[in-house]
């Protein structure tokens, strides 16, 4: 149905010191009418796509870890690029080409720049670190001992690259060469090394500190994709027991919990009773298609629907009576917070709403997510809108509106909206033969194979 949105916005006072581009539609310059919901969603996707396009670090083409429109960067990290957030950003480049935000030649050229950077950047047994210096490709420590390989961020990155591999045309000489370079890096990733000989994947390894961080990855959280890809490797695959004993904790991942009438079939190692922060339902699923995806532990489509609906319902019930929470203002996930950074969730509710939580949940809660989108855009308006779309987080309760972006939050919005609209990225990733083989090895079933 064709709709015209003519909705007044509340008066706001919000300044931005960020640079403006020629086609800027940041605060004060936003269109306030759209012919349809589809047109509205395309506009939202285009604006958030720009974080990876206009906002990319110039040398690498990668996603900056953060962009602060107020000009204040902590620890002099303006040149830091993030590997995981760039994997999500590569998904944006694909949908940008498909939707005509950029030409195919422009998108392929950017992918060439990213791949060339990653080929010579620091890797540790083929695994990239969490952060890299954009100008040099050298590791930038995420913390003192986190100065080596990060298998989770690398999983997010290669998820994007394998999706690009499937999007690129094997009958084009230029694109075929790029596919081969992606495949080479994929084959160089030694996933089995990161088990340290045990039946579990370890998140970090450092050439200086070895395994001292001692962070085994056990479900359930955002890390499912790391196990799927580790099992999918054609060169260094993990044993099936690593998934079942490590991630699934010998079956103890199973749960019979529910909240607000929605079942949660798996639980976090800490037995989170309401599904945890919503990024758990986003990061692994930009490429991994949960529709009809099942294994011994869960129906992942139902799991993610429940997760989003519980998060929404919690904000409607609003047990702490925070201002503005409700049917159209919801979404708790990790983001900037009133005091630093926090993994917002029903069990860690600080009165902070993060737009990516509801917007990246479009596939699971389209009605509730659209209500949130319209409230964020038309009612809160310029308070939370800038050059690259919605700012990272806000709190009406605390009158707190921060003009900052984080790659891992910003770069999931357009891809997950695309998966809701067309399933494009899901279909591409899931047709990669290595991915299909890995999922079958672990006992998954899917309509894709």
Characterization of the model:
- This protein has 449 residues and is α+β, with helices and mostly antiparallel strands.
- It has a single domain (55-441), classed as Glycoside hydrolase 144 (GH144) (Glycosyltransferase).
- The protein has helices spanning 37-53, 83-98, 104-120, 151-167, 173-187, 224-232, 240-247, 300-317, 355-359, 366-380, 407-421, 424-430, 433-441, and strands at 66-68, 80-82, 131-133, 149-150, 204-205, 254-259, 262-266, 334-337, 340-343, 385-386, 389-390, 394-395, 400-401, 404-406.
- The strands form seven sheets. Strands 1-14 form a two-stranded antiparallel sheet.
- Residues 1-23 have low confidence and may be disordered.
Q: In summary, what is this structure?
A:
The protein is of the alpha+beta class and 449 residues long. It has 13 helices and 14 strands. It has helices at residues 37-53, 83-98, 104-120, 151-167, 173-187, 224-232, 240-247, 300-317, 355-359, 366-380, 407-421, 424-430, 433-441, and strands spanning 66-68, 80-82, 131-133, 149-150, 204-205, 254-259, 262-266, 334-337, 340-343, 385-386, 389-390, 394-395, 400-401, 404-406.
Shape assignment: globular
Helix proportion range: 25-40%
Ranges where pLDDT stays below 50 over 5 or more residues in a row are: 1-23
Q: From N to C, what is the helix and strand string? A: HEEHHEEHHEHHEEHEEHHEEEEEHHH
The appropriate CATH architecture is: Alpha/alpha barrel
CATH superfamily: Glycoside hydrolase 144 (GH144)
Q: What fold name goes in the CATH topology slot?
A: Glycosyltransferase
Mean pLDDT: 93
For the secondary structure, the number of strands is: 14
Distance between the termini: 35 Å
Q: Strand percentage, roughly? A: 5-15%
